[in-house]
Amino acid sequence: MLFRSPNQRCPIFRRISQFCKQLFEDTPKVEENTQTGLSLEVVPRNAHAISRRQISDNAIKVLYRLHKSGFKAYLVGGGVRDILLGLQPKDFDVVTNATPEEIKRLFRNCRLVGRRFRLAHIVFGRDVIEVATLRGHHVDSGEKISKTNESGRLLRDNVYGSIDEDAERRDFTINALYYDISDFSIHSYGGGLQDLENRTIRLIGDPQTRYREDPVRMLRAVRFATKLDMTIEAKAAEPIKNLARLLKDIPAARMYEEVLKLFFAGKALQNYEMMREFGLFEPLFPLVEALLKEYPNGETSKLMLEMMANTDERVAQDKPVTPAFFYAALLWYPLSQRADDIALESGLSSYDAYNAAMGDVMEQQCRTISIPRRFSTVTKDIWQLQLRFERNKGTKAFRFIEHPKFRAAYDLLLLRGHAEGGLVAKNAAWWKSFVEGNEDQRNVIARSANKGGRNRNTNQRRRRKPSAKSAPKPAE
């Protein structure tokens, strides 16, 4: 279980312990199996800790309207799981036996989305309650409403069924938890409640088959393990390295959303390390992984660790994090390498070579992760500013710090200083003293830099003049 801080540990622990004691010792519960043998436990209202007060008002509205209209309605997955763990759910998802079209007729504020699996989004301002129809099995469906590719990945999956069938289609047992609004009971499939107690990430069904159906489940296993402080069951972990390559077939737009969940939720460093351990990082970031393999303890590795830890720190402090900065830091050394190659091949100046390399690197990265233009453009701005830090010391620094992207570029310079040392660290230290100084201190620092620059230029001119005078005169 995940404990946010020492102050929260005791209340949450007592609450979960009390729940588990009720659940496993004193509680009358219904135990049975589905037709395919998946275990089912039904825990009545007086035997679990979930209260309607812990569920969002909008989710409750959706659940009750579906129920009063004669449909089955359940809160499902992460919303149930997180409440049982004493966490605040990020989303509240609902499943029902109503079809998407029937849901749309019930809610004027509904829009239908998705092709792979049809979903209903009930919109309450900025709050969106996702409602899915209970999924069924593909066998003997009689219609071409499901489709897989040659590797077994589901391309279309609009097959509807019962709650038992839906549970068998869920990925992990800890997500096969249903809160029934009709009697406030919990339906736990596959031992989900026990796995919560044991802190185990376990797949429902054969891991090879389930990962092939949707390779993103491998990333979800990593994300849940770090988010919930759990361990991936050995049987579920074993095939991941061999199947990691399947992530290359996932649409780049979908991978963008998965990256946000992995790296912008306060567990970036842990997810990065576990993804590399399982071979899941390379399909998403092939340019970065190539440098990490070539130089295991090099600048790229150091910058990755610095950047991931910095992202987690900002999330913990409730500071903003942006994909633009994330990708600027992530791809800086692939960019530098590509710029060096272009400069050698074409003879372009370093500045022009970097500008040419930016498009190449961004295009290659977008083949695996579709980065929206509003972020990729800012990423390129941050890269360009890296080239100006050395040239904008002195009095030019006052104007330079007014650039709208200066702060992001400055943060990257500091990370590079820690990773590279040497001249970059020296440059970063100068800018750090300038940025953090008051007005008087900045004036002194700027004048000092200007004075140093004039002295260097004067000496260079003095060295050139004698050589010109000593040159022999042409013969007459």
Strand content: 5-15%
Unreliable stretches: 1-11, 140-147, 152-156, 454-476
What would you say the CATH architecture of the domain at 6-198 is? Answer: 2-Layer Sandwich
Q: What profile does the largest beta sheet have?
A: 9 strands, mixed
CATH topology of the domain at 6-198: Beta Polymerase, domain 2
Structural class: alpha+beta
Q: How do the strands line up in the largest sheet?
A: 1-2-11-10-3-4-7-6-5
CATH superfamily of the domain at 6-198: Beta Polymerase, domain 2
| Percent of residues in helices | 40-55%
Distance N terminus to C terminus? Answer: 94 Å
Could you give the count of β-strands?
13
Radius of gyration: 29 Å
Give the overall average pLDDT.
87
The CATH class assignment of the domain at 6-198 is: Alpha Beta
Q: How many helices does DSSP assign?
A: 23
The dominant shape is elongated
Task: Give a quick precis of the structure.
The protein has 23 helices and 13 strands.
What labels describe this entry?
single chain; 476 residues; alpha+beta; Beta Polymerase, domain 2; 9-stranded mixed beta sheet; two-stranded antiparallel sheet; 23 helices; elongated; disordered N terminus; disordered C terminus
Per-chain topology:
Layout: H1 6-26, E1 30-33, E2 39-43, H2 57-68, E3 73-76, H3 78-84, E4 93-96, H4 100-106, E5 110-113, E6 119-124, E7 127-133, E8 146-148, E9 154-157, H5 163-169, E10 177-180, E11 186-189, H6 192-198, E12 200-201, H7 207-213, H8 216-227, E13 231-232, H9 234-237, H10 240-243, H11 252-263, H12 268-278, H13 281-284, H14 286-294, H15 299-316, H16 323-330, H17 332-346, H18 350-365, H19 373-386, H20 396-400, H21 406-420, H22 422-436, H23 439-469
Parallel strand pairs: 4-7, 12-13
Antiparallel strand pairs: 1-2, 2-11, 3-4, 3-10, 5-6, 6-7, 8-9, 10-11
Helix pairs in contact: 8-12, 15-21, 16-19, 17-18, 18-19, 19-21, 21-22, 22-23
